[in-house]
């Protein structure tokens, strides 16, 4: 996320006429991605907060795929 932020911020700083405009454009571009990552993280947090028996079975049966499926879009080419 930090590397993506740096790239987008650099692009917006090059395009904008001033820093406040660049920061505003950066926020508009990054907000959907950041919200998506936050939602994925919250879903996994909710999973690990389940009662132990439910959580352990869910993680045993689907843990690896749950993490991979949720975060795969982070490394997928746009």
Verbal overview:
The chain is mainly alpha-helical. The protein has one domain (2-75). It contains three helices and no strands. The chain has helices at 2-15, 19-48, 52-75. Helix 1 (2-15) runs antiparallel to helix 2. The longest helix is centred in the middle third of the chain and has 30 residues, at 19-48. The radius of gyration is 17 Å and the shape is elongated. The protein starts with a helix and ends with a helix.
Low-confidence sequence ranges? none
Helical stretch tally: 3
**Helix coverage percent:** over 70%
Average of per-residue pLDDT values:
89
Number of separate strands = 0
- The Cα radius of gyration reads 17 Å
Largest sheet: none
Keywords summarizing the entry:
mainly alpha; elongated; 78 residues; 3 helices
List the helices and strands and how they pair.
Elements: H1 2-15, H2 19-48, H3 52-75
Helix pairs in contact: 1-2, 2-3
Q: What's a quick, concise take on this entry?
A:
With 78 residues, this protein is mostly helical. The protein has helices at 2-15, 19-48, 52-75.
């Amino acid at each position: 996320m930090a590397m993506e932020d740096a790239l987008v911020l650099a692009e917006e700083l090059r395009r904008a006429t001033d820093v406040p405009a660049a920061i505003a454009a950066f926020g508009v571009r990054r907000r959907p991605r950041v919200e998506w990552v936050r939602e994925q993280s919250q879903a996994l947090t909710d999973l690990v907060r389940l009662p132990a028996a439910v959580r352990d079975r869910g993680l045993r049966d689907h843990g690896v795929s749950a993490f991979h499926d949720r975060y795969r879009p982070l490394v997928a080419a746009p």
